[in-house]
């Protein structure tokens, strides 16, 4: 059986989510680096465009199946390999709805407006400065985190992780977003529950080994 292939970029938040999910499911995979910056971005090259017309990572190839979009990939892994590793989705419809809502709050509302292509477009078309771009990112992450903190802190279902005491898809999404928040200098003091869950996740080797700096395409020195 061929190994799963993951087309990834070390600093991509969406790819980071999938790396965590693959680790939690204890699935081995071949890492295929797609550099999103060098040479104008390898994601725009013909070969990758044929794999994903959106020209985005991640892309997961499992045999003849090609799955795009990080959330779809994570649910595919859970549906296809339900008996491997951790269950990325809880058992009941109500619990699954909560995990999806938390995940989408991060992956659909916070992350896209701070994505590389959005930030590059702002700089190229509207000539925003680096300081203005950073302020934009800080504002939208903090705005999203205010809502997420309230949702997590006010719900008794929140445990060691976003939903109960085992990691789920929600935690796969939360960790990369906190990584981004710290990278862009967001003050995390107003978000103690988010920070607590983030630190608990990083206690687990399966989260640690998915970190951007540990990927084969990460720069050796920065």
Provide a short characterization of the protein structure:
The protein has 222 residues and is α+β, with helices and mostly antiparallel strands. It has nine helices and four strands.
Main traits of this protein?
single chain, alpha+beta, Glutathione S-transferase Yfyf (Class Pi), Chain A, domain 2, four-stranded mixed sheet, 9 helices, 4 strands, 50% helix
What does this 3D model show about the protein?
The protein is an alpha+beta fold and 222 residues long. The chain has two domains: 4-86, Glutaredoxin (3-Layer(aba) Sandwich), CATH 3.40.30; 93-207, Glutathione S-transferase Yfyf (Class Pi), Chain A, domain 2. The chain contains nine helices and four strands, in the order E-H-E-H-E-E-H-H-H-H-H-H-H. The protein has helices at residues 13-24, 46-51, 70-80, 93-110, 116-126, 130-153, 169-183, 192-201, 205-208; strands at residues 4-8, 29-33, 59-62, 65-68. It has a four-stranded mixed β-sheet, with helices on one face. Strand 1, helix 1 and strand 2 (29-33) form a beta-alpha-beta unit. Helix 1 runs antiparallel to helix 7. The longest helix is centred in the middle third of the chain and has 24 residues, at 130-153. The radius of gyration is 17 Å and the shape is globular. The protein starts with a strand and ends in a 14-residue tail after the last helix.
Estimate the helix proportion, in percent: 40-55%
Number of helices: 9
Helix-strand pattern: EHEHEEHHHHHHH
Q: Work out the strand percent.
A: 5-15%
Q: What is the alpha-carbon Rg in Å?
A: 17 Å
State the CATH class of the largest domain. Mainly Alpha
Termini separation: 38 Å
Average pLDDT, rounded to a whole number, is 96
């Amino acid at each position: 059986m061929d190994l799963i292939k993951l087309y990834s970029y070390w600093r991509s938040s969406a790819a980071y989510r999938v790396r965590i999910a693959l680790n939690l499911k204890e699935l081995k995979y071949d890492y295929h680096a797609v550099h999103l910056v060098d040479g104008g971005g390898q994601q725009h090259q013909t070969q990758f465009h044929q794999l994903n017309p959106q020209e985005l990572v991640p892309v997961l190839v499992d045999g003849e199946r090609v799955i795009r979009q990080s959330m779809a990939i994570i649910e595919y892994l859970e549906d296809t390999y339900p008996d491997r590793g951790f269950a990325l989705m809880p058992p009941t419809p109500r619990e699954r709805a909560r995990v999806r809502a938390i995940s989408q709050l991060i992956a659909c509302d916070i992350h896209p407006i701070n994505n590389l292509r959005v930030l590059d477009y702002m700089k190229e078309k509207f000539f925003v400065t680096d300081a203005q771009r950073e302020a934009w990112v800080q504002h939208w992450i903090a705005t999203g985190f205010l809502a997420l903190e309230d949702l997590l802190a006010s719900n008794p279902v929140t445990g060691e992780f976003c939903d109960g005491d085992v990691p789920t898809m929600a935690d796969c999404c939360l960790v990369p977003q906190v990584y981004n928040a710290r990278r862009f200098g967001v003050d995390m003091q107003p978000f103690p529950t988010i920070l607590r869950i983030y630190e608990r996740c990083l206690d687990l080797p399966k989260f640690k080994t998915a970190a951007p700096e540990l990927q084969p395409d990460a720069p050796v020195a920065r």
